[in-house]
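Exercise (ungraded).
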Amino acid sequence: MNKPPLRWSDVTPRHLWLNRRAFIAGAGAAAVAGPAMAGLTYSPSSYSTSDEPNSLEDITSYNNFYEFGTGKEDPSRNAGALTTDPWSIVIDGMVDRPGTYDLADVMKDQPLQERIYRFRCVEAWSMIIPWIGFELSGLLNRVGVQPGAKYVAFETLVRPEEMPGQRSPILDWPYREGLRLDEAMHPLTIMATGLYGEVLPNQNGAPIRLVVPWKYGFKSIKSIVRISLVAEEPPTTWNMLQPSEYGFYANVNPTVDHPRWSQASERRIGAGLFGGRQDTLMFNGYEEEVASLYSGMDLAKFY
Amino acid sequence: MDRLNALARRVPVNAVYLAGVLPFLWIVWLTLSNGLGPDPVKAIELRLGELGLQFLVVGLVITPLRWAGLNLIRFRRAIGLLAFFYVFMHLLTWVTLDMGLRWDQMAADLIKRWYIIIGMLAFATMIPLTVTSTNAAIRRLGPAAWNRLHRLVYVAALGGAIHYLMLVKAWPVEPLAYLAAVLVLLGLRLWRHARRQAAQSA
């Protein structure tokens, strides 16, 4: 029998497909690891929020990734040219097993989970993003953190021929970020390699990026090529550019304003024209999990 | 130049109003047709603000063009009123769609956020200019006083450009370009003023 050819319009829209997945999970199939039709195999996580995620369209067309331009739509327009395979990460500094690790090797034996996290940009907008990734602590434990290491430093790829934004000195390339070791080892801190059940789109930091959900988005460095365990607080890109505005910690905090704008509230992307604002939560709503990391610290001073 | 002037004389002022409202209608259309991307509120706000700045800059170009022999003064009121329209719509967008009528936060911003303070001051300077834009107002004030008052537009344009630059991260090109344009246009006036004074005292 001749069947009519399949068209793109026959593809189940992602939000319906997701609803179906949620339905299956709710029907008692929660233990079944990720759907077979998706690119990645992963399990759910109790760290996920129950909030409705933003659409894939929102998440992949509204990005700050200055390597591809400063406009929100630049990354989706320009990131297609980025070569993400082969990809390797240099892991060095105070580790037992330093070296250049192929991406597959980095991910080896790291169980992938879906983490539906709140994402709060320092520009006072937010999204809900269903990341797929693994805990950074798993990787750090595997390479062996030496006793003197106190911080983890990260670097993004520099490849101006594929990253047009890097052809202008708007930031001091490579993009650099860092975490205190206890922040890096926290179970909420993940290395994301996927989104909505599939491999990470280039504009979201493919093939591998950091996600630290209680910090402003700029801490969650993308397209990582270097991870260094170090003894001193490493230099970080936005802090280098404007130290009075972007601190090393950059924890989401409604009571500590950016010098030029308020951080008390945020606009949820996708809320529509009349969505208005919502109050920003302390540590982006992860206070219970992470507040103890900062006990005794003056968060207005260590912003 | 005479041909250009003759051509300009044939363009009705209403055509400038009409053309000036088209970008607004375009924004309305994009809003209704979901053409503004994932964050329509920011897109609307930014586009309206940029249009306000663009009309302010165009308004500042009229006088230097006149020095060069091209007379477009007939259109200046329309351009100024369009600038006010876009800046006002930009402000309205901030109050309603962006801030969601959070009056307490807006009040706090108005006291301590320099980009808000400067933006609001720039808007405030445009109110008397708009109010005195009629022929009757020009007659009542007298041309000299009217001209002096309307130099407030320098403050509005400069304030608008600084306001834009202050709310972005890093140093993107667009806000720098507007500030450069305003500085050049104000600089031209200063330069001419200084030359004339020198010529008078010589």
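Further reading is listed at the end of the chapter. For now, observe: Chain B touches chain A through 25 residues (CB under 8 Å). Chain B has ten helices and no strands.
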